[in-house]
Amino acid sequence: MSKELLKLIDQLALTHSLTLDEYQALIEGHTEELAAYAADLACRVRRKIYGNSVFIRGLIEISNYCKNDCLYCGIRRSNRNCQRYRLDADEILQCCDNGYALGFRTFVLQGGEDVFFDDAFLCDLLQRIKTNHPECAITLSLGERSRESYEKLRAAGADRYLLRHETADEEHYKKLHPSSMQFQNRMRCLADLKELGYQVGCGFMVGSPYQTTETLAKDLKFIETFSPDMCGIGPFIPQADTPFGKETAGTLELTCYLLSLIRLIKPNLLLPSTTALGTIHPFGREKGIEAGANVVMPNLSPQSVRKKYTLYDNKIVDGSEAAECKAELAARMASIGYEVVTDRGDIKKTEFQ
Ligand code: SAM
Known about the structure:
By secondary structure, this protein is of the alpha/beta class. It has helices spanning 3-15, 20-28, 32-50, 89-102, 119-132, 147-155, 170-176, 183-195, 213-226, 252-265, 275-280, 284-291, 303-306, 326-335, and strands at 53-56, 58-63, 106-111, 137-141, 160-162, 199-206, 230-235, 295-296, 339-341. Helices cover 44% and strands 12% of the residues.
């Protein structure tokens, strides 16, 4: 194993910062041994901050209508084969009640950019969830909105917002999105969310088409400088009805290695081991946790719509991926030495804040 690269990992663990070239060297030099070394350091630092706790979030996929046409995404506007659905407020509230009874203390409302969900609807919904479950955190993941909208949603009770930056390289961004979507606007949204006091999550797909070690190095540098509270990374998985339907999926190995590096960049980060990781490998989510992740997001959506939220092919929707199978998830996590906890799971402020 290259001594230089080991030294770089040590340096990252110590200073939480590298140059773009150094990040790129670490990605290009990725080997199993280097990944094991990074994972070991990542797990040690995470253990110091979060012990062996794994936080759970109840994911409610509220709509698969989307006005956007992202080239990678199965719920993109142009996909005529996508069976569209939208949950109403009562159905969403019911999901939260079910989740609460199962021990979830964070609800993540995610969906396509569905114009039906205007500020009035969402603010009313947020207030109702907060009234029913005042001790729970609410995360929104509803894409790009105006600053004014983010401000109203925050005031109505939203605590966190997930908006993956998708790639920190503008040229790469243009290859993944239609020209109606602008890299600068995504960056504007992320900056607004932070300024408005949300706990903010960015993130990207590993192995997305046209991704290079250079664009990945920029992603790591972006995470270092933006310093999000959460970061969602998972493998890109092709969806047959999209322009990228015949592209190759991202790998478990590179995703796990990047999870470790990201943990070292920001030790107190809330880092999910994603459904996409669980989809490409039967023990993907366990491997993500062992690489340094500390969050899992089981599905709380009504059973009837789970298969319709098809971002990518073969998405896992039952077994320990389903919120109602929390015991199975807890057993899986226990088998690798971790404990699923009933907790809001806020970011722990440390000197790495
Ligand atoms: N509309 C909101 C947004 O854009 O942030 C939230 C929903 S969007 C479908 C959630 C995430 O799914 C995206 O940020 C993207 O990274 C991921 N995703 C979409 N298509 C994917 C695919 N084919 N493989 C893996 N992840 C995918």
